[in-house]
Amino acid sequence: MPPKNKKTNPSKPSRTSTTTSKEKKSNAHSPSTTLELRLDSVAFGGKGVARLDGKVYFVEGGIEGDLAAVEVTDVNERYGEARVVHLIEPSTHRGVSPCPVSEQCGGCQWQGVPYPQQMLWKKQFVETAIRRIAKLGETLTVESSPSPVANAYRNRVLLRGRIFPDGELKVGYFQRASREFVPISTCAIAVDRINEFIKRLQNISFKDVQAARPSPLLVRFKIELQDLPGKKSSEPHILMSIFDTDDKSFSAESIRTRLGQLPGVAWCGGPTDLPRAPFFEFETDLGVKFHTSPGMFQQVNILHNHTVRRLVKSTVDALSPKRILDLFCGSGNLSLPLADGVRVIDGLEFSKKAIAAAKYNVEQGGIKKAQFFAGDTEKFLWDASKQKSHYDLIIADPPRDGMYKSLEPILSLMPEHILYVSCDPTTLARDLAVLCKQHYTVKRFVALDFFPNTYHVESFVVLERIKS
Ligand SMILES: C[S@@+](CC[C@H](N)C(=O)[O-])C[C@H]1O[C@@H](n2cnc3c(N)ncnc32)[C@H](O)[C@@H]1O
To answer: Does the reported pTM lie above 0.85?
Structure first.
């Protein structure tokens, strides 16, 4: 039997406290108190969950099965927040992490946890949300679509750069729940070519620049690296954006000049260059040549993005819609492979740059009957509704907020099918509660994993209009 959760003396975390009066009991649940907790599950957001005296604690740095000394960081009537101070008995789910800094770095919560276990937790997050929020869980089967690889999957990383007073350049991430810099020499979830480039960065010195300054100080900046998977390693294949430094006397321009000359760099620029950056060939998939531009949204798990494109395509091919609307379409990632010269495809997206890329993809590929518009989803839908436009199928891939405000106009357009791609199970469940109240039924539900070793989970949902 696992030991019961208990309050402890902060200075001696593993001993049971003898406090019993009401006042002392409430003090035991105050910020800065140290408790000894057995975590019984994990929550969406990546924290471990434990219960004590009827209160639920969300524990930063903990996972299901850990027995941990935790510090309470915040508490209210219903629940508390805490962070692991040390593990008394680590969970049996904890294995060897392939990343030397995974305990400090804020990027991956679950490095070292076997991937099938991570996938089980992700599926549970989705099932819990649709049961509790959408009230749909009882009869619904949730399929799992794991990422083809659990590490080396990200083709884009946003790093913190530091140039030390002695001229040494380091890159890294922020520490978990803080802004402390954690230097890295490699990132387990980044593709090999990003890691090879990070090694190249580490051989660069700014000794001369720092030495020429009257009083050399630490220089901080952000640096984004994106790999172009369709390019050979012998070709320029890295897009690098270097953002302004926190030190006006050490310009980002001087950093760009030096790093932009490294082998493999296809483009190097700063924030003011991004709007004018050209399109680069990204990859060819399902017969479509996709292009990108630095700073533009692009799915980062290339292999799993192929899986999702195929899920969308096979579903659409089976349903044979004549008119498709792709909402939150980016550069046409999901809908361009659906163009067969007969179906009509309209795509809608906020970002003018992404729409320009979608149009460039259409033009370069000679794609017929696909048009893309820059604008706001809600406004576009209300206009379409007023004009009595008809779409047989709507694809919607909204950001985390979901598409609550767009549901009313969607319900007035009433397409036969909706393919909802979501990156947040809670907002998805909220939206499904509305869609499935009267008009739609869920025909298929797949939990997709674009981000192994983190708590994130996506969903692909096929909704069918209920025939009246
Ligand atoms: C999760 S991304 C999906 C992009 C695309 N479907 C893909 O697979 O690459 C969400 C997109 O929605 C766009 N977006 C966010 N709010 C929007 C709005 N109110 N109207 C139109 N597009 C919006 C963002 O610019 C972003 O490109």
So the answer is: yes
Question: Which atom of ligand 1 is the closest one to the Cα of 308?
Answer: 8
Atom 1 of ligand 1, residue of closest alpha carbon: 399
Amino acid at 316: V
Closest residue by CA, ligand 1 atom 27: 330
Q: Is 397 in the pocket of ligand 1 (CB under 6 A)?
A: yes
Q: Best substitution site from 328, 335, 421 to test ligand 1's pocket, by max atoms within 8 Å of Cβ?
A: 328
Q: pLDDT digit string (tens) for 208-262?
A: 999 999 999 999 999 999 999 999 999 999 999 999 999 999 999 999 999 999 9
Look at the alpha carbons of 173, 195, 299, 453 in this order and tell me if their dihedral is positive or negative: negative
Sequence-distant (6+) residues with CB within 8 A of 70 are 34, 35, 36, 37, 50, 57, 59, 62, 82, 83, 84, 85
Contacts of 205 (CB under 8 A, 6+ apart): 167, 168, 169
- Cβ density class 114-153: b for 16+ within 10 Å, e for less: ebebbbebbbbbbbbbbeebbebbeebebeebbbeebbbb
Question: Which is it for strands 393-396 and 417-422: parallel, antiparallel or unpaired?
Answer: parallel
The answer, yes or no, to whether any atom of ligand 1 lies below 6 A from the CB of 350, is yes
- Burial (CB count <10 Å: 0-12, 13-18, 19+), residue 73: middle
**Atom 19 of ligand 1 has which residue's CA nearest to it?**
376
Where do we find the tokens 């009537």?
77
Is residue 102 within 6 Å of ligand 1 at its C-beta?
no
pLDDT digits (tens, 9 = 90+) for 448-463: 999 999 999 999 999 9
Q: What is the largest CA-CA distance in the chain?
A: 78
The response to whether residue 382 sits with its C-beta less than 6 Å from ligand 1 reads no
Q: Where are the alpha helices (DSSP H) in 203-338?
A: 207-211, 252-259, 302-319
Domains of the chain with bracketed CATH: 6-89 (2.40.50.140), 117-149+299-465 (3.40.50.150), 156-269 (no CATH)
Please name the residue that has the structure tokens 């979830």. 189
